[in-house]
Amino acid sequence: MGITDLHHDGLVISMQVETANVMRILVDGSSSVNLIMLHVLKAMYINEDQITKKSSVLVGFSGETRNTLGEIYLPSYAEGISSYERFGVLDCLSSYNVILGRPWIHNVKAVPSTCHQCIKIPTDWGVATIKGEHKSAQECYTEALKPSKARFDAPDFVRPELVSFLKNKSSYFAWSHFDMTGISADVIIHMLNIDTSFKPMQ
Q1: Which of 72, 84, 92, 185 shows a CA-CA span of 20 to 30 A to 103?
Q2: The domain that contains 76 carries what CATH number?
Q3: Is 176 within the bounds of a domain?
Q4: ∠ CA 182-187-193, rounded to 5°
Q5: Please, where are the H alpha helices in the chain?
Q6: Does residue 63 belong to any structural domain of this protein?
Q7: Is residue 152 a part of any domain in this protein?
Q8: If we measure between CA atoms, which residue out of 94, 90, 56, 88 comes closest to residue 74?
Q9: What is the dihedral of CA 15, 16, 18, 23, to 10 degrees?
Q10: Is residue 94 within 8 Å of 37, Cβ to Cβ?
């Protein structure tokens, strides 16, 4: 079914990476690298020791930076088209499992269209089409707008001891402003800059 309504959604597809069918793959022509999330590799039973420890700095639109854990080479397959790609590995919360940037787009000579929600790729047997998943794109966008939750990634053998320690020291933490005694009133009381010579009006 074609896309008839005006939209501003990204181009999200599913494809086979290594031996797994990976969903929520963003095709992003503004990205200079291909990226895959660490939890995806773990779900594919790929050990971290297969990641080449070659960290890169990623710079976001607003200038924020994030370091990759390293890089890994993986095969990808879609609509009879195969390629061997280098992925930067990220360990972060994301609504996308994989981001295919310009390296993949140029490697397979793809022509992606967010407007038409599809990708055209020239092959020896004609032009192949990878259809975008419009609903998945909307779900990813909605998730990206939600406030992120803090992650607790302590190793399993550390977690029980750490939880026990925090519980025993719970009285050391301030759970509300009533617990923060000794703070100057100048810090917690705000005064309105009002000229008392003026008559208040409703």
Answers
A1: 92
A2: 2.40.70.10
A3: no
A4: 145
A5: 38-43, 102-107, 134-145, 159-168, 185-188
A6: yes
A7: no
A8: 88
A9: 60
A10: yes
pTM: 0.69
Q: What is the pLDDT along the chain (202 residues), one digit of tens a residue?
A: 455 567 788 999 999 999 999 999 999 999 999 999 999 999 999 999 999 998 889 887 777 788 999 999 999 998 889 999 999 999 988 899 999 999 999 999 999 999 999 999 999 999 999 999 989 998 888 888 776 655 556 666 677 888 888 888 877 777 676 666 777 766 667 667 777 787 777 6
Residue 139 lies in a domain: yes
The domain of 21 spans 11-145
Domain count, the chain: 1
